[in-house]
Write a structure and sequence with these properties.
The protein is mainly α. It has helices at about 1-15, 20-30, 35-45, 55-65, 70-80, 85-100, 105-115, 120-135, 140-150, 155-165, 170-185, 190-200, 205-215, 220-235, 240-250, 255-270, 275-285, 290-305, 305-320, 325-335. The two termini are about 40 Å apart.
């Protein structure tokens, strides 16, 4: 049977020789049979001859890494790097290097990634990966000392705050981010770090105020900020304020059932069951074919021994559910 399986895998490769997946599957099967040399030979064929390209080499490297062959994986990563990796691939290569404690080479890959980073999100991810590399290399304190001697721009102070935070030096992180806020009032990236540090320091009121400011100045992620505000207000025991924030969230996204579900989750946590139920019914009115609010309400009612209402909702959900697995899950919910 083993030989038959191997034969079928090889036939699949012959039918579609350019597809790497069948070579991956055959290599994995041989690996499970403890035929390591044969598995490696099959995997290497993913990026051989006319199939050799940057992307096939990257895929091969990731396959080798998955099967705990780090030396072979890094060798292939280096071959791929000669073909100009994308930004995302450079970050993945750097992570592989960090994982085997080759920190200097990891930093060099991040330097290359910096030359092709195009968006603010990419720059931010690059900064986080640099800090992670310094931390794992044990050089974070040296980098902090060097940055303290740099020009105190808002960007440098924000980076300093992130480094202090990574080092667990929250008091120093808070001091640095306050200086950054003074240097660049209303700067969104600075405010985000300030809010996160305040929350980590358990200065929840300060975190609420900062996220509220972010909700005003950064409309792109207003929903996320308002959710953070409501969660923090719940932690502070400010239940009425939290639910009022949820109403603001709903006003900002009245057609989104997820906002009503968020309100319901907080209301249930606070013991405001009827408000939670009302919010879920509003979600069902807004998006009648979306089963998530209906199933959430049915489950909550069942937990509260309102069995007849729960059963009715599960049957309603069955009408809108088209996937077999989800219909089976609904039947199981009815049974239990």
């Amino acid at each position: 049977r083993k030989d038959d399986a191997i034969k079928l895998y090889r036939q699949a490769i012959e039918v579609d020789p350019q597809s790497p997946q069948y070579r991956e599957y055959l290599g994995e099967y041989l690996h499970r049979l403890d035929r390591q040399k044969d598995a490696l030979e099959v995997w290497r064929s993913i990026a051989q001859d006319d199939r050799r390209s940057r992307d096939t080499l990257v895929r091969l490297a990731e396959v080798l890494g998955t099967f705990d062959l780090p030396d072979e994986a890094l060798e292939v990563w280096r071959e791929a790097a000669e073909m100009d990796l994308t930004f995302a691939q450079e970050l993945r290569f750097a992570k592989e290097l960090r994982d085997v404690k080759q920190h200097q080479e990891a930093l060099r890959r991040l330097d290359v990634a910096a030359t092709i980073a195009e968006t603010p999100d990419e720059q931010e991810q690059l900064l986080k990966d640099r800090i992670a590399t310094y931390q794992q290399a044990g050089t974070l304190s040296e980098q902090i000392a060097a940055l303290k001697n740099s020009e105190p721009t808002a960007a440098n102070l924000r980076q300093l705050a992130l480094m202090h935070e990574a080092a667990g030096q929250l008091t120093d992180a808070a001091a640095a981010i306050r200086r950054a806020m003074a240097a660049a009032p209303g700067e969104i990236d600075v405010l985000i770090v300030a809010a996160d540090i305040a929350e980590r320091q358990n200065r929840l009121t300060d975190a609420v105020e900062t996220f509220q400011e972010l909700a005003k100045v950064d409309s792109r992620f207003r929903t996320n900020y308002l959710q953070r505000v409501a969660d923090l207000q719940m932690r502070l025991g400010q239940i009425d304020d939290a639910l009022a924030t949820c109403e603001t969230l709903i006003d900002a996204n009245p057609a989104s059932p997820e906002t009503y579900q968020f309100y319901a989750r907080l209301a249930f946590r606070a013991g405001r069951d009827e408000q939670a139920v009302t919010s879920l019914r509003r979600a069902m009115n807004v998006a009648p074919r979306d089963n998530a609010p209906r199933r959430m309400l049915a489950s909550s009612l069942a937990d509260r021994y309102r069995t007849d209402e729960a059963i009715e909702l599960y049957w309603q959900a069955m009408k809108y559910e088209t996937k077999t697995d989800d219909r089976i899950a609904l039947v199981l919910s009815l049974i239990h």
